[in-house]
Amino acid sequence: MIREIKEQFTEEILTEAIKRYDINNDSVRLLGGYECFVYEYQKNNAFFILKISHTIRRSMNNIRGEIEFLNFLSNKGLAVSNALPSTRGNMVEEIAAENGSFLAISYEMSPGKEVSGEDWNESLYEKWGEFMGKIHHATKGYEWSNPAFKRQAWDFFSV
Question: What is the mean pLDDT of residues 77-103?
Answer without folding.
Answer: 94
